[in-house]
Design a protein that fits this description.
With about 180 residues, the protein is of the alpha+beta class. It has one domain: 3-Layer(aba) Sandwich (Aminopeptidase). It is about 30% helix and about 35% strand. A five-stranded antiparallel sheet has the order 3-4-5-6-7, with helices on both faces. Helix 1 crosses helix 3. The N terminus is likely disordered.
């Protein structure tokens, strides 16, 4: 099923256990619950302190998706229960079109170490390949070992340390 964003469609992506649905404005409560969790946000930024911060970020990501068809954020839900697991992204790093497209994922704690990051990452890498992307990258902070292992399991290889989002990160990539 496709979601309409004014001028383009982003498709749902099905995996073994998940439904990845394009971000919608009414996903704000799910994203706020995720983005306000200090442990989830430990390696990323300060947690959102109110839902208005989350709504602002949703608006920014939806605008990015409008300007970059087929890229953006997909909310991940369990197929069986429809429970919100987290999300995955395919976006230009720092939302700058001169930067490479990165795959990323963020999960509620209760879904950590259960293979969902790999499932989301793999599905989005396959989607990127279908879109004709030649290379996908992933970045993590040096101390985020769990995400580094997930990127590697998805087939990305560590290349070097770089600076993105005003911090040093581990830079991974995969040629498609």
């Amino acid at each position: 099923m496709a979601s309409y964003y004014g001028a383009f469609f982003m498709n749902e992506i099905l995996t073994k256990q998940l439904i990845l649905k394009p971000l919608q404005r009414d996903d704000d409560e799910n994203l706020f619950a995720l983005h306000s969790d200090e442990q989830v946000m430990k390696y990323i930024r300060k947690p959102d302190s109110d839902i208005f911060q989350t709504k602002k970020r949703i608006k920014e990501v939806m605008q990015y998706s409008f300007e970059n068809p087929d890229l953006g954020l997909w909310c991940a839900f369990l197929k069986e229960s429809k429970e919100f697991v987290g999300w995955g992204v395919l976006v230009h790093i720092e939302h700058k079109q001169t930067n490479p497209v990165e795959v990323g994922f963020r999960l509620h704690q209760k879904f950590w170490k259960k293979g969902f990051g790999f499932e989301i990452g793999s599905a989005l890498i396959n989607h990127a390949k279908d879109l004709g992307q030649k290379t996908i990258v992933g970045i993590t902070r040096e101390d985020n070992i769990g995400s580094q292992k997930t990127l590697e399991k998805c087939g990305l290889q560590y290349i070097e340390d770089r600076i993105y989002y005003e911090q040093q990160v581990k830079y991974y990539e995969i040629k498609l």
